[in-house]
Write a structure and sequence with these properties.
Elements lengths: L2 H4 L3 H17 L6 H26 L7 H12 L5 H24 L5 H19 L9 H8 L1 E2 L2 E2 H19 L1 H11 L1 H6 L4 H27 L10 H11 L11 H21 L5 H15 L9
Antiparallel strand pairs: 1-2
Helix pairs in contact: 2-13, 3-8, 3-11, 3-12, 3-13, 4-5, 4-6, 4-11, 5-6, 5-11, 7-11, 8-9, 9-11, 12-13, 12-14, 13-14
Amino acid sequence: MTPARTGLTRYTVGLPLLIALLLALSAADFRQPQNLLNFGGQVAALLIASLGQMCVTLVAGIDLSVGAVMSLASGLLVLQSDPVLAVAMALAMGAAVGVVNGLGVAVAGVHPLVMTLSTATFLQGLCHMVLPMPGGQVPPPLVAAANGDAAGVPLSFVWCAAAVVALGALTTRTRFGLHLFAVGSQPRSAYLNGVRVRAVTVTAYVLCSVMASVAGIFLAARVATGDPNLGTSFPLETVAAVALGGVQLTGGVGSVAGVVAGTLSLGLLTNGLNVFGISPFLRGVLTGALLLAAVSVQRRRHVGL
């Protein structure tokens, strides 16, 4: 794809490299192998969820329910001792949420912000009914799959690699990927050229929610317990990651590589706060500021996102 289609610029790629360089030069603890290994586990859930957010952003949508999906997935995991059944329930829940969001946006014509915020509110309430407070035990095989290693390689990197390869192949090597960009760029033209715009939009929301479920499974397995507030910060963070990665919130422009760069930027900032012992509450301030900056420099076709 052309740079115009991917949204990649030297600033997109250079930001995580610059942050990593500054941290490496100013903090000896950042260069410690254990910190670098922990960093992979810290960004894995955000990367997986952000790749899903990219799918709806490419069709000029947005999904604010990803955090609630993650939280509910963690609650479902601790309800089942069978890891296969637990994962199946979480993924099925994610797919169902995606269908509801997609139909609401593509068929009923509800604005994506309103639709997904309503869904998020419903799911968060449901999550607190399923799991009123943090607790429960995630099946041990899933805990091992999130915290173990294979031939010395942390499995968190395997989760990241699998998500990147899968979404990269889907968006660049399939007809569906081409349709995502077409619907986001010019939905009317895409429709006139035979693209099933509604079906593509619904599928994008399903992919987003399923990826959020996967992220919730990983994060719950990493901490080995369920938490009804597990994904609270992720709606803003996933949107910030895709925006920092050059994905246009008006649709039709973006890439997996850009999302990886945006996620690494946010992850490095968080890691830097931990290394320097700065209050974690500053993370929200920085995320909001970076999102505002990234959106402000994006081109808009109309007032709104």
